[in-house]
Specification:
Blueprint: H1 2-38, H2 42-55, H3 63-74, H4 82-101, H5 106-118, H6 122-135, H7 140-153, H8 156-169, H9 174-190, H10 196-216, H11 221-237, H12 241-272
Helix pairs in contact: 1-2, 2-3, 3-4, 4-5, 6-7, 7-8, 8-9, 9-10, 9-11, 10-11, 11-12
Amino acid sequence: MKKKLCLLAALTLSLSLLSGCQKVQARLEIREGNTAYQKEDYPVALTHYTKARKIDSKTFPELDRLIGYSHIGVYKPEDKSPANEKVADRAATELRTYLRKRPNDHIAREALINLYLNSNRTTEAINFFREYLQRNPADVEAVRSIATLYAKQGNFNEALSWYEKITLIDSKNPEAFYIYGVVCWEKVAKNPPADMAERLMIIEKGRAALTRAMQLRPDYLEAIAYQNLLYRQQALIETDPLKQQEMMAKADALRGQAMEINRKRKAAQGQKS
């Protein structure tokens, strides 16, 4: 019995020493990888980080992120070769794996978004955030990311829908309504739909959002300014001359209100200085 206990103790000690040795080796590889990464020698950094993970993957979960970053460093956005695209694939896989373990690492998430955009994979980025939102439905930043990605893709209707979701999730934040209103103005001012009814609907949605922003923050200068601009857009498509004059009068009143708020702000700043 004593012999068995001695053998068991020896085996346990041996495994413990082995484990400790592996951690030391992994740390040395990580240190070499960090040195190479700081020198922007990403292929060498990638080699060391990969070795470290093979030695000890459990102790150092950050290695997924470091390997992903190194792949991003190796990737060349202007190179459309299959080999280079595989580098982007690998970087995305590593960062997605890491973010499943560390979903609140916003820096890593931003790195993944930038990778998707630089490699023209907007749809993949949208799918990533859709999957993420199934687990974290109240994450405003993730919803905002999807809205921004749809806007970059040129899909205005989807972008507007997701910007509207932000106002529902973050309903006490005047900025959420302000951004929604600005998006509506940008659509009708820069790329208006041919259908006048659709254009009017977008204007009314934008005005409603900006009105809510102004209710939440009465001196919201920027919201007032864009409300003025939306009234002017509405005047452009109004066929009734009297209603058109009414729209312009409201726009002028809002512009005057914005100018007065701006004057008071400057006066207050002057008193402080």
